[in-house]
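Regression test attached.
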Amino acid sequence: MITVALPKGALLSDSIRLFQSVGLDFSAFQDSANRQLQIEDPTGTAKALLVRAQDVPVYVEYGQAHLGIVGYDVLREKNPLVANLADLQFGGCRMSVAVRAESPYRSVLELPPHGRVASKYVHCAHEYFDSLDLPVEIVPLYGSVELGPITGMSEAIVDLVSTGRTLRENGLVEIDTLFESTARLIAHPLSYRLNGGDIHKWVEQLRSATLNC
Amino acid sequence: MITVALPKGALLSDSIRLFQSVGLDFSAFQDSANRQLQIEDPTGTAKALLVRAQDVPVYVEYGQAHLGIVGYDVLREKNPLVANLADLQFGGCRMSVAVRAESPYRSVLELPPHGRVASKYVHCAHEYFDSLDLPVEIVPLYGSVELGPITGMSEAIVDLVSTGRTLRENGLVEIDTLFESTARLIAHPLSYRLNGGDIHKWVEQLRSATLNC
């Protein structure tokens, strides 16, 4: 039986719809009464784990799930040892640098040297500013990074932006984009090569379902 | 004006009650319609930031908040450069090792060498198993660590336990405790020494309020 790891949050409903289009029904995860984190498809051909987006690559890396769906942002941040098999075209967003609208900065090159940048994506932020040879201090936060510039703790933030509503509500504007992100289909590289659980068949079906969307 | 950082989640209501007992009212954070992450006490003597528990020490360390309330578990895990001023006696819980009830392990010393332990508290887990000279692999997860033993990815977990309900619901039992945790009052060491914003007065009042509880 094949096991897939699905991410809680923004990508869940599209992920469930994609698997439904190839005949696997994990919609029980969307039932508000459901507390189970591990369910079987009603046909008994597949199992799904419901985990945090950042944990999807962990379950795939450790071989607990043959396939997983996760945002490209997580792959860029954690650099896990998984095969990135397909761009699933949904969950589009971008990793951006934002500053207070009333600040004088309109490009990252204008940020003060040794200024501070708050982010949940510490690795992505480091990589980006290093590539520009801009010496900034990354302040690692777990949530509400927009508070960084509001409280004056940091000049800028690096964060994932989809509609931009949170930025607007907090008086922040984007000044640069690190990369665009979409949902990706990932697999354990060895399972994929050895075709455990008929992975190839499912991957082909998921790829065609994506192209026909 | 003094600024305090309050943690979202389990410690929030007791934290607000403590500050109310010394005359500072931040109960607006409990209003479900409130979306603000930064508010002023109605008397205008103090400001509060509402942040993730793990971010409280960051705001204090970087000098954006004079005082903060945070669980001892976060201090143990992140080891921030803050002054731990008082045990506030609420938010009691413990950092425990748990395994599946049907597993043969009844003590950490029985865990298989090079076995796997899933945890959100990677630093605490490493420190603990290193102190016992037990070579285990820590699997870093962001949420639902109980899925580790359930899926067979790990033999054990290290996690924060308060009532034990989550463990029971997932068929897990505690076999060891790393440490007990309660809410702590923290301050920026330098601000505290320099008595910025009349910190000493507030700390003394908060300490007496705690003792009189």
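Expected vs. actual: identical. Chain A touches chain B at residues 8, 35, 37-38, 49-52, 54-55, 58-59, 62, 64, 116, 139-144, 146-147, 150-153, 169 (CB under 8 Å).
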